Input
Amino acid sequence: MERLKNKWVAILSLGLLSALGPFSIDMYLPGFNEIAQSLNTTVPDIGLSLSSFFIGISVGQLIYGPLLDRFGRKLPLYIGLGIYFFTTLACSMVKSVDHLILLRFFEALGSCAGMVAARALVRDLFPVNEIAKVFSYLMLVIALSPVLAPTFGGYLTTWLGWPSIFLTLAGIGLLTLIVSWLWLPDGNKPDTEKSLKPLPIIKSYLEVAKVPQFYIFAAVSAVSFSGLYAYISGSADLFLNVYQVSQKEYGLIFAIISLGMTFAGQLNTFLLNKFSSEQISFTALIVQIILASVLLILISLNLIGLYSMIAMICAYLAALGFVFPNTSALSLTPFSRNAGTASALMGAVQLGIGAIVAGVVNMIPNQNGRPMALIMLICVLISFGIFLFGRKSGIVNTKKEEAIPEIRTS
Output
């Protein structure tokens, strides 16, 4: 670890970058009802601002990937965080839902710079055999956002009104910029041979996308993770309107459910000492399928109450806490020079599918949570099918082996 003066300071800094997007998603969820009333619209319409945020992150990552490889990790990161700061301030002053939807798109364009840079820096700064563990540590920081953000957002909404949520997020963005400037290592040097013309950029993405280990594990990670976005998108309507909990109670429920991912991410670091990332992911996907199936059956038979709903979703997300860090690490392992591009493409796929899933959930009346549970099950079934295809093709190996050697792409 010669390139790092302090490993844990670097991990915490990377975690803060990674958490900026999730904080921006989770903190304003308890304020959906108040925002809808203030802007004279409905909760599902406010939910479209969540979908626009997902789309913005997806598109933005494709933009930042080549920039991070061409100019180094820091300059594009600073620009993105600046965009985030100003657009988040603007969100606190909107007068219509259309303006909120538009600004959330540009806010996402800024926040995703941190997400792409964090993943690329993990690949830059840590040995291949430590990447999955580092992603698990980052999962702890990321998982704290749905624990803290909705609870904090609920109190802010109650005490100071919903605009205070975006003012707070703007402050977090400014803090992230300062931390990145003071303590975050530079990572790989700028690649002056990297072209920013459209055709070479497309060629670079295609070069990454055609690597079998990348497209299998990126797809598994993206589709499985979309189950989380199905829950996030449907949770406000489910708990606030179907179960009719208060804003503070919703924030607490959101935090409790997120603890499953927090616990799983840390347990994963210990399991990696005995099992491979493929083995852990395979088992976790099977558990997710069972949990999602049982949840859907219980909802369909009207045999589930508030507390059992919380417990089932918490367990489902805990299983996801094993899938996400391992498959993310495996998808980035083959790359060195193009780590920024690979990170961007992986993130764009994850958030692009997440945006589609979130939009579908928002368009369907939540009823008693059945559409949300059905989409969560569909996501994990497709993800498991991709995993099995990769194993049958010889790309996925569920036997414990040495770390996969890196592949340098041109």
Q: What stands out?
A: The CA atoms of residues 299 and 370 lie 6 Å apart. DSSP finds 14 helices and no strands in the chain. Residues 212-242 form the longest helix (31 residues). Confidence is low (pLDDT under 50) at residues 401-410.
